[in-house]
Amino acid sequence: MDWPIIGKCRNRLWLVVLASFLLWLVLFCFYYSAPMVGDNFVKSVNFGDSNSVFSPGNSNESINELLGTNFISEETDFVKPAKDKDAAKNSYNPFTNFSAGDYGLENFDHIVTKVYPNNQTHIAQNEVDQSVNGVSSLENAEEPDQKRFKPDEKISKDSCSGRYIYVHHLPRGFNEDMLRHCRSLSNWTNMCLFTANMGLGPSLADSERVFSKTSWFATNQFLLEVIFHNRMKQYKCLTNDSSMASAIFVPYYAGLDVSRFLWYSNTSMRDAASLDLVKWLRRKPEWKKMWGRDHFMVAGRITWDFRRVSEKDSDWGNKLMLLPASRNMTMLVIESSPWDNNDFAIPYPTYFHPSSDNEVFRWQSRMRRQKRRYFFSFAGAPRPNLRDSIRTEIIEQCRASAGRKCRLLECRDRANKCYNPSHLMKMFQSSVFCLQPPGDSFTRRSAFDSILAGCIPVFFHPGSAYVQYLWHLPKDYTKYSVFIPANDVKSGKVSIQKILLRIPKEKVRAMREEVIRLIPRVIYAHPRSRLETLEDAFDITVKGVLERVERIRREMREGKNTSYAFAEEFSWKYNLVGTTVGEHEWDPLFARL
After folding, report:
1. What gap in Å lies between CA 349 and CA 448, rounded to an integer?
2. Across the chain, how many H-helices and E-strands are there?
3. Torsion angle, CA of 257/260/261/263, rounded to 10 degrees?
4. pTM (2 decimals)?
5. How is 220-275 classified by DSSP, letter by letter?
6. Tens of pLDDT along 434-485?
7. 537 phi and psi, to 5 degrees?
8. What is the pLDDT of residues 40-66, one digit of tens each?
9. Distance in angstroms (rounded) separating the CA atoms of residues 368 and 517
10. Which of helix, strand or coil describes residue 352?
11. How far is the C-alpha of 351 from the C-alpha of 349, rounded, in Å?
12. Which of 569, 450, 490, 468 is nearest to 93 (CA)?
């Protein structure tokens, strides 16, 4: 008689267990569906449609898929903020077509490439935790082991005179912790792949024999601050005595920091680490010596990501470069503002990171022998939403070129070969001229890829190179490039092909030789090595910083202030020709709109 009762109890027990399991499953799914942009975001934002992170296309690959032979990287001419009409003059942004909320995602030019799976560098170790420590406590965080930066004992003191650099030992939250939490660096791409190998990314396969045998990596263009920091650790004139230093390096990963919060965040989140950094620096005796004017740092994105002029959450970026303390420092970015005098452009990282001079020499010799079957080429996508963009006109001219002299790679979707470094570099290596029009900003990584391939770049705005990379490229731009005014292309007044055909063959050969000679100056050597007789982009940058700081130090001793003896909006002209007096043919191109 007891069996029916026991059966009912057993059924009820199973129902309780099943209900508990379903409840646990629902909670588990909800937790892992939250936007993965760090603990700060999860704590400060109520979840809803407006705060959900949407991925573009199918770029949310799992880690297992990404460890295969194909993965997605981020190469971009990307979205800029719409600026407030009442913005301060020194924060002028010419790219007014976009705001942070236009698409809700970054306008990436992605690349698809192949890698050797066995060349991955301990992804699991690199990704310790998917959450991000609260940035508001960074200034009080634990500092790293200072013994890590060791001066080279083999270098004599005399050879380092005037070249000593002291590296601030920042709390780990300003740099190392971002790499540990690398999954939070992008909403759509697993950046852990690219932070491997000291920021160079995984090694590139070479099934089509486009690259040399070694030293080619799938380097993300936004990892420059990591690469630069690792190169600095090998700098031969480091000192642990800040009183001996000619300049002081601040290894803050500003670009990686802001990239975590560019979407679906408020201004407080985007500014928190920058404000903490300034507070930390101001307490240091090294800062008070010159009030930061001997300090420098690398922010591995374009300047417009750090020049937000209002407190509106919808406005783009943070305000790092507008902070008074930051304006005392030398800021190194991949694209500078022509209207500001404390940020300087240095080359985008390319895919080539040689470990020896001979690797560079062999590559240069190969580019000199390279057969170039295309007269000119263009890789990119149209920008129909940008009023002044000439990309549509360039694509039309390329398609209409006589005798198929133009090679076109349209970056419209992921299936296109444009997104494969092998195909892209192969096209550049096979071209005499490479067209480099502005995208969502003045500059493109593609310009440096084309120089690396020995292809003569064709620019359409002086802001794309001539007023940018003054330390790395010749002031006489006619030696290595062609300039065609964008307005002439937009109005249909000129034929790109006809202009290029008018250049004498001897001149073309001389320009290509100059481009090939420039290759060492626009690449970053492997952080574990030092080039012996060549100066790479890192070496030239450090030399430029040291010279600038020494000039400022001399002016301060003499009671002068010549650095600001001109209106800041004419910085581009002063840096280019040494004066702001008189008219210049490019004045209309840099006039404030």
Report:
1. 8
2. 19, 12
3. 140
4. 0.78
5. -TT-HHHHHHHHHTT-TTB-S-GGG-SEEE----HHHHHHTSSSS--HHHHHHHHH
6. 999 998 899 999 999 999 999 999 999 999 999 999 999 999 999 999 999 9
7. -60, -35
8. 322 332 222 222 222 333 333 332 332
9. 10
10. strand
11. 7
12. 569
- What is the identity of the amino acid at 374? Y
Check residue 269 and give its pLDDT.
92
Among 414, 426, 428, 427, CA closest to 457: 428
Indicate if the alpha-carbon torsion angle 448, 450, 456, 457 is positive or negative.
negative
3-class secondary structure, 50: helix
Confirm if 407 and 429 have CB atoms less than 8 A apart. no
Cα(196)–Cα(201) distance, integer angstroms: 5
Written as six digits, the tokens of 64 are: 């297992």
Tell me how far apart the alpha carbons of residues 62 and 537 are, in angstroms, rounded to a whole number: 35
Cβ proximity of 453 and 432 under 8 Å? no
Q: Show the tokens assigned to 543.
A: 């030399």
Spatial separation of the C-alpha atoms in residues 286 and 290, rounded to whole Å: 8
Give per-residue pLDDT as tens, 386-398.
888 899 999 999 9
Element (H, E) at 434: strand 431-436
Q: CA–CA separation, 57 vs 112, rounded Å? A: 14
Tell the residue number behind the tokens 């057969």, with chain if given: 371
Instruction: Give the list of residues 6+ apart from residue 391 with CB closer than 8 angstroms, or none.
Output: 380, 381, 382, 383, 437, 439
Rounded distance, CA 179 to CA 159, Å? 34
User: Residue 548 and residue 385: Cα distance in Å, rounded?
Assistant: 39
Residue 115 structure tokens = 């890698």
Quick one: CA dihedral 397, 400, 402, 404, positive or negative? positive
Average pLDDT of the residues in 348-356 = 97
Structure tokens that stand for 155 in this block: 């270098």
Closest alpha carbon to 460 in 589, 350, 335: 589
SS3 category, 105: coil
SS3 state at 148:
helix
